[in-house]
Amino acid sequence: MRWLQSFTAGCLDSARHDGRRMRTAVALGSNLGDRLGNLRGARDVILDLSNVSSPILSSSVYQTEPVDCEPGAGKFLNAVVEFEYEGDPASLLEQLIQIEEALGRKRDHPKNVSRTIDIDLLYCGHQQIDNERLQLPHPRIPSRKFVLKPLADIRPDLVLPGRKKTVSELLKDVKQSGDLLHFADRW
Description:
With 187 residues, the protein is α+β, with helices and mostly antiparallel strands. The chain has one domain (2-184): Alpha-Beta Plaits, CATH 3.30.70. 30% of the residues lie in helices and 26% in strands. It has 5 helices and 8 strands; from the N terminus they run αβαβββαβββααβ. It has helices at 2-14, 35-47, 89-102, 145-154, 167-173, and strands at residues 21-30, 52-58, 61-64, 76-86, 118-124, 129-130, 135-136, 180-184. α4 (145-154) runs antiparallel to α5 (167-173). It is globular. The two termini are 18 Å apart.
């Protein structure tokens, strides 16, 4: 089944005619409140956006230790969702920020603190963007086991723009410590 998902997603990436429809992925994380409910809520709102369409690929959910958070922070649940997106990545980023705020995340929060929801835009097709507002692909993907493992669930053979290694190879190379425990397949 995974090989079929990987094959299908790969075909979608290479079969672009209009240059605007892109396989796009977001990482979701939560360590406050109903963590799984927070992930579900964020996923559902993202997938209801007018410029998001099928096919949808969702990773398993993993429980991870907090990375660079305040002392005593609770464990995170993390997942990745990939979908078809048509539009400007900067506009999608703004929509994701609005979703975070609607789900209880404050924009003026200190960096690396506990949160009800964290949504990171990982990539939009083959686009490479590097400005003060948006970096694509997300520059910390290769160092984040809590992103690479769920991404490897759905796109193990993906080579991110500007990289030479597949997601699976990056996962093998990551040095991040801490346990990554399988939490749920279907969510």
